[in-house]
Design a protein that fits this description.
It comes from Propionivibrio dicarboxylicus. GO terms for molecular function: DNA-binding transcription factor activity; transcription cis-regulatory region binding. This is Transcriptional regulator, LacI family. Keywords: DNA-binding, Transcription, Transcription regulation. It is built from twelve helices and twelve strands. By secondary structure, it is of the alpha/beta class. The protein folds into three domains: 5-61, 434 Repressor (Amino-terminal Domain) (Orthogonal Bundle); 79-176 and 308-336, Rossmann fold (3-Layer(aba) Sandwich); 178-305, Response regulator (Rossmann fold), CATH 3.40.50. The strands form three sheets. It has a six-stranded parallel sheet with strand order 2-1-3-4-5-11, with helices on both faces. Strands 7-6-8-9 form a four-stranded parallel sheet, with helices on one face. Helix 8 crosses helix 9 (205-220). The longest helix has 17 residues, at 308-324. It is elongated and about 75 Å long. The mean pLDDT is 91.
Length: 345
């Protein structure tokens, strides 16, 4: 095999660069064009040694495979698109990592887009993505603009919704029940004897469902909906501090603060410390998400653990099965959750 691109394409009298072709890759790899085509389009059915030779030749030549070309056997793009609200949120980042790793292991590439929590932005992204003929789409959440749902249903492209639960997904779903999480948090804190709750909450549709679950259990016990300070997305430590300050400055008494994210809970811990309040002695604090830092703050944060990477991996597995025509045991996968009791509550 040549050692450089210059060995593959000797200098030409023409100033115009020549596009690298599949035949060029085949010549460099010492293989037939059809073998190179198969190694690029369906690597799972080609010997690993051959795939390695082809990839080395691709890297050397700088060839960009046209996976939609008629000469490729699979007629697939080998591209899966995912739309997430943001990447600064570690929960979504871990799901994307699990999704991308699993897809890459099967020869697929991940195209990532950010909706910034905007249904209109998501709708625009879905339209743009579908025009590029992906083999599958992964969405965050189950609430979409009507035109988005219509496009997805008419596109005949496998779709997996994530990070939520509904009996009527667009196609497939990997997630968990936010309502049940809210119920579980309420029952846990009530069982610990807390009754005077305050909420530091994000203005987010999934957080709103957790709040409904929480307040439904309080209502069963004859307790009123607790005071709440709603903060904009994305949630941060600063907003958590501001939220607790707002609640405490209202003059009401609290024995537990429930937060819609660990970032907010971390801010609540900081503000409580600044005001000389002991956690959990004067004030219990509950978070959500079980981010990496939650176990290492002082005090450590009680939270709700979600297997974030598993959501991505299982979403990839569902797409790959559908693309390959394999039957699914169920189109709806509930990954569940675990309440993690630590020092703060």
């Amino acid at each position: 095999m040549p050692s450089s691109a210059a060995d593959v394409f000797p200098p030409s009298s023409s100033d115009a660069p020549r596009s690298v072709t599949l035949k060029d890759v085949a010549r460099v790899a010492g293989l037939s064009p059809i073998t190179v085509s198969r190694a690029l389009s369906t690597p799972d059915i080609v010997r690993p040694q051959t795939v390695a030779r082809v990839r080395a030749a691709v890297e050397l030549t700088g060839y960009i495979p046209n996976l939609l070309a008629g000469g490729l056997a699979s007629k697939r793009s080998r591209l899966v698109a995912a739309i997430v609200p943001q990447l600064s949120n570690a929960m979504f980042a871990e799901t994307v990592q699990g999704l991308g790793d699993q897809l890459a292991a099967h020869g697929y590439q991940l195209l990532l887009s950010l909706s910034e929590y905007s249904p209109q932005r998501e709708s625009e992204l879905v339209a743009a993505i579908l025009s590029r003929k992906p083999d599958g789409i992964v969405l965050t959440g189950i609430n979409h603009a009507p035109e988005t749902r219509k496009r997805l249903l008419s596109a005949s492209v496998p779709v997996v919704e994530t990070w939520d639960l509904t009996p009527t997904p667009v196609d497939m779903l990997v997630g968990f029940s936010h309502f049940r999480i809210g119920e579980t948090i309420a029952r846990y804190l009530l069982g610990k004897g807390y009754r005077r709750f305050g909420l530091v909450w994000a203005d987010d549709e999934r957080a709103a469902v957790r709040r409904q679950g929480f307040e439904s259990v309080l209502a069963e016990q004859g307790l009123a909906s607790p005071p709440a300070c709603e903060e904009p997305l994305p949630t941060t430590l600063e907003l958590g501090r501001r939220g607790l300050a707002t609640l405490l400055d209202s003059g009401q008494a609290f024995d537990a603060i429930v937060c819609s994210s660990d970032a907010l809970a971390q801010g609540v811990l900081t503000e409580a410390r600044v005001r000389g309040l002991s956690v959990p002695g004067d004030l219990a604090v509950m978070g959500f998400g079980d981010l990496d830092f939650a176990a290492h703050t002082v005090p450590s944060i009680s939270s709700v653990h979600i297997d974030k990477r598993a959501i991505g991996r299982q979403a990839a597995d569902a797409l790959l099965a559908r693309i390959a025509g394999r039957p699914l045991a169920t189109p709806i996968i509930d990954v569940g959750f675990t309440l993690v009791a630590r020092e703060s509550a």
